[in-house]
Amino acid sequence: TAAVAALLLLLLWRRRAGGAGRVCVAVLGDLGRSPRMQYHALALARHGHEVSLLGYLQTRPHPDVLRSENIRLVPVRELRGLRVGPKLFQYVLKVLVQSVQLLYTLLRIDQPSYILLQNPPGLPSIAVAWVAGLWWGSKLIIDWHNYGYTIMSLSHGRSHPLVLIAKWYEKLFGRLSDYNLCVTDAMKKDLWVNFKIKAVTLYDKPASYFKETPLDLQHNLYMKLAKDYEPFKPRAGNPSADRSAFTERDGNSRSVVKPRDRPALLISSTSWTEDEDFSVLLRALEDYERFIKEGAKLPALVCVITGKGPLKDYYNGLIQKLHFKHIQICTPWLEAEDYPLLLGSADLGVCLHKSSSGLDLPMKVVDMFGCCLPVCAIHFECLHELVKHNENGLIFRDSKELAEQLKMLLLDFTALEGKLHSFRENLRASRQLRWDQSWDQTVLPLLGNTE
């Protein structure tokens, strides 16, 4: 009919017209906790593109994003309180409402030439972004961080009908994209073998502000955190007004020093979801406490676990039942600018991320390595693409192995020899690519180098 022909002509005109220089970066999740998508937006803005950064505004994005004149935040309201009828009905209703809400938002932004979408979550965002792309004449780029269906399978099991539908959906609509990025070579291979989707690997790389923190800034950060968190306060018997648990400023020279009897600072970060079992770390800490009671010359330990997520209250309940004499645990939420400073100040990082697909890598380890912070990470299939055992960190399989690694690494942690120091030196010497350089080499050619 004439109406259909007219609509097709309009869509063809829009596809040709594009939206020169404009890109929509979209995630159906919290923008403040989507660092890779924020990095995409900043890289695009750096090359002169106007960026609509679309997602939930629960957590404040990085100050660089907020300051950029080329980035406009486009909020999507998060759905809450759909608790009517059976769970399956609630889920279907949520997907339908999200679809309408997301499409409405995508059709109200300035016409983009590209829509760059994070997956997961891909249901319903891939199909909605594809429809919006048809309307705008935009090319769709999917950035595959993982598979949504494998995350769903953690709580439902691989054979659950919802999981099977989600897999079929990702496979079908994933093929409708114009370009695809992914986070590991293992995922690139899997996308092609199982989904017939061609992707380009863009490894997560640390942003430039992930680096070792100078002593002065370390001290300022510790003093700031000590106002709210007990483990950062100086131990009893050290009433100095300018002292934290880890550092002290000399009253005369004003220089900052780290006392030899300071505790070791261990840091882990998490989204508090099913793919990270923090009971592994808690059991390892129980063994560490026992080592000290049995006479091992180990330092006291401050364990900081950062992040927000659904299982945080559950694990905080477990932590409160532990009664350690030599270990303190706190679970703060850090401002975006403080998190890199704390990573750059720590002695050791621990990662408990176990990929639901076995194909993605933990960004938290990437950031730790940017700060030259050695890591103990739990084993899964493609972790070797990032953590080199006995070179930049250690890989463990259970709490006993982690406890032994903590004992070995922290036995002489302030000395300028030993494993911990050599791992840090190896990270300093590796001179790894930063996000901007990697992005320019990998993504910019896909966009035709338009600036």
Automatic annotation (TrEMBL):
Membrane topology classification: Single-pass membrane protein
Gene giving rise to this polypeptide: Alg1
Recorded family membership: Belongs to the glycosyltransferase group 1 family. Glycosyltransferase 33 subfamily.
Primary role: Mannosyltransferase that operates in the biosynthetic pathway of dolichol-linked oligosaccharides, the glycan precursors employed in protein asparagine (N)-glycosylation. The assembly of dolichol-linked oligosaccharides begins on the cytosolic side of the endoplasmic reticulum membrane and finishes in its lumen. The sequential addition of sugars to dolichol pyrophosphate produces dolichol-linked oligosaccharides containing fourteen sugars, including two GlcNAcs, nine mannoses and three glucoses.
Organism: Rhadina sibilatrix
Biased composition (Basic and acidic residues): 245-257
EC assignment: 2.4.1.142
Reaction(s) catalysed by this chain's protein: an N,N'-diacetylchitobiosyl-diphospho-di-trans,poly-cis-dolichol + GDP-alpha-D-mannose = a beta-D-Man-(1->4)-beta-D-GlcNAc-(1->4)-alpha-D-GlcNAc-diphospho-di-trans,poly-cis-dolichol + GDP + H(+)
Annotated signal peptide: 1-19
PANTHER family registered for this protein in UniProt: BETA1,4 MANNOSYLTRANSFERASE, CHITOBIOSYLDIPHOSPHODOLICHOL BETA-MANNOSYLTRANSFERASE
Compartments where found: Endoplasmic reticulum membrane
Domain Glycosyl transferase family: 257-413
Listed GO CC annotations: endoplasmic reticulum membrane
GO molecular function: chitobiosyldiphosphodolichol beta-mannosyltransferase activity
Protein's UniProt name: Chitobiosyldiphosphodolichol beta-mannosyltransferase
Pathway membership: Protein modification; protein glycosylation
Keywords on record: Endoplasmic reticulum, Glycosyltransferase, Membrane, Phosphoprotein, Signal, Signal-anchor, Transferase, Transmembrane, Transmembrane helix
Domain of life: Eukaryota
